[in-house]
Task: inverse folding
């Protein structure tokens, strides 16, 4: 059965899952001019040049008799052939994905088209499962045989100048690969597993979305948060630290802050990173050698202090020596920006003490501590608004009625309901009150209670709830990412 849809679809923006593309033979899809875009239950949406071409749609229906075909036309007809070639490239049509070179280029194109941050080559008993991380979530892409898997990993290692004969030790490297006239930068890590080598490729090339986050005003800060961070960066000495899990956007925030300082053109700015993820004009960037340990964070920091810096960025504070040296640098008139792994902004203060830094030094030098998370944005094409229940309003302190976003899933978001991500932030300015709490030996929980009581909107949950009401994320996404500890404990007590 064929149904003609009454609206157009922008084929330049659709995110098509690999299993949907596999429904039609590639050569036939290209020759007929049919692009599958999404599958929902037994309804397959396809894009064709003319949705009134019933002979063509009849052929599709004959190929897929168990599915209801929903026909769309391209919003930009002149881009339709390009979209077909992008989703069914020549190597796919000719059946050449069993060649490592072609498969690598195909996977890279799919990663860039879907704004994937990572490509995972996961060995299995029968071959390899290839997955891509899109908006923080892994998506299965395709499976390949053992032979192709071995050739693909070897090809990746050759490009990254890794030792192809060494398969029993982890290795790290970088790739600068030219694809369609553009250089794509990748960070590569391999590790041995029981079924073979697992390779992870982090895509470092700047997409349009990443380029849009180069400025401090564009990274999703509220007006109050922006003023706080900007004020902290304007102080010529002190320490600003950002915490959050891996992949939460800490480096993006640091780079945006650095560009704010670079614009002044009167500062010597030095960064110490592992690795240097992207070049920043006007910043002296130093790469830490984590494998040979010839240039550690602590050693690089001690050396940098002899080069007359005004601002120092430390990619990550990993040990007590780096922590204490960074804090002492602030005492001698430097502005230090750094990241640290903790669960909350208040947790940064006690974490530095746990690393061996004296409390008085932490209290004297910290200016602002931050935590952040990345939450998925609702897809603008399928998002709807619904009234929050009374229970939800009561739990979050909202005065009903309140409209909150709901997601469904469509061709533009790969049927996930989400497209892109936004950041939420937690900020704790280190005021005299906070210094006193630290010097008195208060716990992270006590300082978090202080922040929640003083400025609930500055907590991760408070900022997240504001972004839910603004339609920037959903309540489900916030609750998945930011744990409500009181609620979790209540649930445990109920179960007990």
Result:
């Amino acid at each position: 059965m064929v149904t003609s849809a009454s609206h157009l679809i922008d084929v330049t923006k659709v995110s098509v899952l690999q299993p949907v593309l596999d429904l039609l033979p590639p050569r036939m899809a290209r020759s007929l001019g049919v692009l599958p875009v999404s599958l929902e239950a037994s309804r397959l949406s396809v894009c064709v040049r003319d949705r009134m071409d019933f002979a063509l749609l009849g052929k599709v229906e004959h190929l897929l008799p168990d599915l209801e075909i929903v026909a769309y036309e391209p919003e930009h007809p002149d881009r339709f052939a390009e979209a077909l070639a992008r989703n069914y490239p020549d190597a796919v049509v000719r059946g050449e994905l069993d060649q490592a070179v072609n498969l690598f280029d195909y996977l890279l194109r799919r990663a860039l088209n879907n704004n994937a941050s990572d490509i995972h080559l996961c060995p299995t008993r029968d071959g390899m499962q290839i997955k891509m991380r899109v908006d923080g979530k892994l998506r299965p892409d395709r499976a390949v045989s053992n032979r192709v898997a071995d050739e693909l990993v070897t090809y990746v290692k050759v490009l990254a100048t890794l030792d192809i004969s060494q398969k029993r030790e982890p290795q790290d490297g970088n790739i600068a690969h030219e694809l369609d006239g553009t250089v794509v930068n990748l960070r590569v890590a391999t590790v041995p597993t029981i079924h073979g080598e697992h390779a992870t490729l982090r895509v470092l090339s700047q997409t349009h979305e990443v380029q849009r986050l180069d400025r401090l005003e564009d990274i999703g800060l509220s007006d109050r948060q922006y003023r706080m961070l900007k004020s902290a960066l304007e102080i010529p000495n002190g320490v600003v630290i950002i915490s959050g899990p891996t992949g939460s956007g800490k480096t993006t925030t640091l780079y945006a802050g650095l560009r704010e300082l670079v614009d002044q053109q009167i500062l010597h700015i030095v960064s110490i990173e592992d690795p240097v993820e992207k070049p920043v004009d006007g910043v002296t960037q130093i790469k830490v050698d984590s494998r040979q340990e010839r240039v550690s964070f602590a050693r690089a920091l001690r050396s940098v202090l002899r080069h007359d810096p005004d601002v120092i960025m430390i990619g990550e504070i990993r040990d007590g020596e780096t922590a204490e040296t960074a804090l002492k640098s602030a005492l001698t008139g430097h502005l230090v920006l750094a990241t640290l792994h903790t669960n909350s902004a208040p947790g940064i203060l006690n974490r530095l003490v746990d690393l061996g830094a004296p409390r008085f030094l932490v209290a004297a030098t910290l200016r602002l501590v931050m935590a952040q998370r990345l939450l998925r944005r609702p897809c603008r094409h399928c998002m709807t608004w619904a009234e929050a229940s009374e229970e939800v309003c009561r739990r979050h302190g909202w005065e009903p009625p309140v409209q909150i976003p709901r997601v469904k899933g469509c061709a533009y978001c790969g049927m996930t309901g989400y497209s892109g991500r936004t950041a939420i932030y937690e900020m704790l300015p280190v005021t005299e009150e906070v210094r006193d709490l630290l010097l008195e030996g208060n716990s992270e929980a006590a300082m978090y209670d202080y922040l929640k009581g003083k400025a609930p909107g500055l907590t991760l949950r408070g900022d997240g709830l504001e972004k839910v009401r603004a339609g920037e994320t959903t309540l489900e996404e916030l609750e998945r990412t930011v744990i409500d500890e009181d609620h979790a404990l209540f649930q445990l007590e109920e179960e007990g």
Remarks:
- The chain has a mean pLDDT of 90.
